[in-house]
Write a structure and sequence with these properties.
This protein has about 230 residues and is of the alpha/beta class. Helix content is about 35%, strand content about 20%. The strands form three sheets. It has a five-stranded parallel beta sheet with strand order 2-1-6-5-7, with helices on both faces. A two-stranded antiparallel sheet has the order 3-4. It has a two-stranded antiparallel sheet with strand order 8-9. Strand 5, helix 4 and strand 6 form a beta-alpha-beta unit. The chain binds ligand 9WO. The site of ligand 9WO has 16 residues, from strand 5.
């Protein structure tokens, strides 16, 4: 079973998102383990639980101190008895792709470090981070949304997590094609009918139509995927 540990200043934010829907259900079923840790709990400052300070060299804002993050990491190593693969979510990382999600699924224990403010003291990154991952070329206010996107994309690939198992074998970006359009009841809605072929019950024709739609869509919306 894959285990995710998320180190963040906002564990409730991660817990709220990852406690719902398909991922939440998979956790309750014991198909994956996700633990959210509050970095503030590991502050050496007993009074104010301080976790950040102003940057050496000057400049605006605050930088996360190394010690609380290091202690959080050590605690996870201690309680799990294993050394996790550590990922730092940052705009400077390699972009997350479906291929990358498939690779991460093979790693039994992932530790996701979410930075905040103007960044994290470089020394703790040097000490524990194995790889830096970005979810896209934009800047967020912290790594949490990135961590949640990463967990979602990896967790759904784990056995038993998706309601129908073969689901992820034929979806967007897996075979380099976009998905065909989907329809459900009613047959006619706002004067628009479901394509006749889907009502025909002719499975070979349906399969051919869906393949054509996939290719057509990919050419129109994402020609880059065909190359
Ligand atoms: C803000 C800032 C302000 C003044 C000078 C330097 C500064 N650096 C930053 C900054 O990059 N803050 C980051 C906020 C620190 C690490 C966590 N943060 C973050 C992660 N923003 N965006 C991401 C992210 C993560 C994954 N994929 C895309 C974006």
């Amino acid at each position: 079973m894959i285990r995710f540990d998320i180190a963040t200043l906002f564990p409730e934010m991660c817990e709220a998102v990852l406690g719902e829907s398909i991922i939440g259900r998979a956790r309750k079923k014991g198909l994956l383990e996700i633990r959210c840790h509050n970095i503030r709990d590991y502050s050496p400052d007993p009074k104010h639980h301080r976790v950040d300070d102003s940057p050496y060299g000057g400049g605006k804002g605050m930088v996360m101190q190394p010690e609380p993050i290091w202690q959080c990491y050590l605690d996870v190593v201690r309680q799990s008895g294993s050394k996790p693969h550590v990922i730092y979510l940052s705009p400077q990382g390699k972009t997350l792709t479906q291929q990358k999600a498939l690779e991460l699924r093979e790693i039994p224990h992932l530790f996701l470090l979410c930075g905040h403010y103007e960044g994290v003291d470089e020394r703790v990154l040097e000490k524990i981070v194995d790889e830096e991952i970005s979810i896209g070329d934009y800047v967020l206010t912290g790594g949490e949304l990135g961590a949640m996107v990463l967990v979602d994309s990896v967790a759904r690939l784990c056995p038993g997590v998706l309601p129908s198992e073969e689901c992820y074998e034929n979806e967007s970006h897996m075979n380099g094609l976009l998905e065909y359009p989907q329809y459900t009841r009613p047959e006619e809605w706002e004067g628009m009918r479901v394509p006749e072929v889907l009502l025909s019950g002719h499975h070979a024709n349906i399969e051919r139509w869906r393949m054509e739609q996939s290719v057509e869509r990919t050419m129109k919306k994402r020609p880059d995927l065909l190359k």
